[in-house]
Amino acid sequence: MADPPLLELRKLNKFYEDGFHAVKDVSFSIDSGKLVGLIGPNGCGKTTMMRCINKLHPISSGDVMIDGESVKGKNTSEIAKKISNVPAELRGSFGLTVYETIMLGRYPYLSNLWWETETDEATVTDAIKKFGVSHLQNKQLNMLSSGERQRALIAKAYVQEPRLMLVDEPTAHLDMRYKLEVMEYLRAMVKKDMSILVAEHDISLMARYCDECIIMKQGKIYAAGDPKEVITENLIQEVYEVSASVGFDKDGELFVLPKRYAGDYHI
After folding, report:
1. Cα dihedral value 9, 14, 20, 24, nearest 10
2. Rounded to 10 degrees, what is the CA torsion of 143, 55, 154, 162?
3. Phi, psi at residue 81, to the nearest 5°?
4. Handedness of CA 133, 137, 142, 143 (dihedral sign)
5. Of 48, 142, 210, 259, which sits 20 to 30 A from 192 (CA to CA)?
6. Rounded-to-integer distance, Cα 236 and Cα 261, Å
7. Taking the model in full, what pTM does it have?
8. Residue of 163, 177, 183, 201 lying closest to 40 (CA atoms)
9. Residue 140, SS3?
10. What residues in the chain have per-residue pLDDT under 70?
11. What is the per-residue pLDDT across 134-144, written as a single tens digit (0 to 9) for each?
């Protein structure tokens, strides 16, 4: 009997209290060992869907399965051992250092509320080296540059040893070097027993690094598959209302060049 997908969404719906239908009957699955890009315009439901996956938002109907088990009956600690989260924005670091922030990723495994084990310390020390933040470990997180902070937050998610990592807009506010650096880290982290779902606006970047892309529009899945096959000029027009050139460079990498807004506007 075949193993279940790592992640499976079954007719997932999310309504907000004001009645807004943010995620509409969404179904898809992700196998282990995949870097999957989640793309679409602002307000299409990407972040809401990711927050339903890790139970930051309650599910209105449908289900989210991790390794064939529903997240609905799981508590916070159980979810954290399966799913880690890298948010788009840092809402407050409370003066924590980089070392302390990364150690928070070990919280689901702490058997004693106050004391980390040698295993926890070794895991965090290894991650600090792996993500190149050794020289920053005693600095407060809110004193770092955007690129440095993003690496620290990814390291925190990494030490949770998750099956699935959810990463929301990791390259927002980053320059070209740090965009590529962050995506290289994510690409290297994918392994046979873990997948990463990353929501991102840079379509060319997603096409370069991701095994698969899921494109959302108005709360629904518009298309999904190999980014070099599903990302077309017609898709950009239909999803973003933007006229664009979609082509391949000399190395065979897909690029998207937006040209003009193609929707209705009034001045």
Report:
1. 20
2. 150
3. -80, -15
4. negative
5. 48
6. 11
7. 0.94
8. 201
9. strand
10. 92-93, 112-114, 265-267
11. 999 999 998 99
